[in-house]
Amino acid sequence: MFDFQRHVVTALITGLDIFLIYAATTFVLRQFPYTRPWGESMSVFLLTTIEDFGLGMAHAVPRLFTIFLIFAFTRFVVRLVRLWFGAIESGLAQPLWLHPDTIQPTRRLVTALLWVFASVVAYPYVPGSDSDAFKGVSVFLGLMVTFGSSGLVNQITSGFMLTYPGR
What we know:
The longest helix is centred in the middle third of the chain and has 55 residues, at 36-90. The chain is an all-alpha fold. The chain has five helices and no strands. 81% of the residues lie in helices and 0% in strands.
């Protein structure tokens, strides 16, 4: 806990130092006629940056609330799925399409698919997800996963064939 507090205090002091250096530089530049436009543009830049940051945070709150609702609903559905598979494991329910030996892996697969689906649904609501930088990083990660997962897909498919044999 003390390390965390030390890091927070260090970050606050560093931020205050940067702000004071910026303010002093702006003040000094505004004192001379030749550098006055630079000093004024620096102060305007700082104020507009702070304003844009604050407005961006205010506009992000509804999107973050939507993401929270999506994940809360998914958590509720995952708990229902766990209860249902728990009833199957205890013998209270006996679906014909599910073999007793495949109950645990099926529960894990359904849970993972629900969370992946929730992530896909929540992605457009992530603040900044419509920016070109975010899209570029997403495409880059998609390409890395695509090129690096050919063996993984083969192993997953083989695992499905072993876990869920045809009848």
